[in-house]
Amino acid sequence: MINSPFSLDGKRILITGVTGGIGQEIAAVLSSLGAFLVLNGRDAAKLNALQEFIQTENCQLEAFDLEDVEAIPSWMADLASRMGPLWGVVHCAGISDVFPIRLMKWGNAERIMKLNWGTSWALAKGFSQKSVHEAGDSRIVFISSSSGLVGVSGMSAYSSSKGAVIALTRSLCSELSSLGIRVNSVAPGFIKTQMNKKYLNSITVEQTQALEKQHPLGFGEPSDVAFSVAFLLSNEARWISGVTLPVDGGLTAI
Amino acid sequence: MEQFMEKMAEVLDVNPETLSLDTRFRELEGYGSMVGFSMLITLEEEYGVNLPVDAFLHINTLGELYKRVTRSDQ
Known about the structure:
The structure holds two protein chains of two kinds.
Chain A: E1 12-16, H1 21-32, E2 36-41, H2 44-54, E3 59-63, H3 72-83, E4 88-91, H4 106-127, E5 138-143, H5 156-176, E6 181-188, H6 194-200, H7 205-213, H8 222-233, E7 244-247
Parallel strand pairs in A: 1-2, 1-4, 2-3, 4-5, 5-6, 6-7
Helix pairs in contact in A: 1-8, 3-4, 4-5
Chain B: H1 2-12, H2 33-47, H3 53-57, H4 62-73
């Protein structure tokens, strides 16, 4: 008999971008599975509000702006020196932008690449330090996107950055396996978050219907992503590394 | 107004001299949903005008759009 599959009891997991819709739900799910969470966001007040939402004392709030990419490894080393090595990292922080390439400024494209791919790279660099990850058995889960797998008009920079995260996942699978670190990513389709609701308010009803039709199972919920992350983190996924799991209601299958 | 028309020309990918306040922008060659979306984003980022898409669909000329921008300045 299997007892509590997917249990994360006592596992110390860093979650970035935790005040966003998907990050918040991931924090709630991992907390319910018993994890000790290191919750990262830029805004300390929003972090405090999140702790009240998920109703746990089993966490540590760490406000840090990941845009300071070069400082990420030393920040992680400091975290580990204070609370012990991390068992896992879930990287949800990132930005999105819909803008035709003709009108997009290089500065915006560069920032998207930095905040989506650059932070992923830096977190992996930080996690690979001996003092930061639990020796022999730890894991990283990145949040990529379905638009990293298929082309989407108006998302040239965002799609590129998420595609780069997918390539990074595969490369790190190879490089970090000797340290016992599994690396996977999740590629969500259109998820009903506050940020995406704002996008839906800026397009017509017909455009919304067309977008939803692209997903055979309709739009997704943040919990759809959260449970997929929990699975990839769990010991039940011990033989899975280097994959990008589409969680998209069938979007990229058709 | 000149700056507004230059911005719109950039978004619509046309020579600014071909535009006027009477220009019915949806009838311009190359206009599509992505261009329309870009116009909404530009209004928000450049002029702080958050125009709901339903309201935008009832606007037909650059002059009507410009009124929204100048109204927000008051």
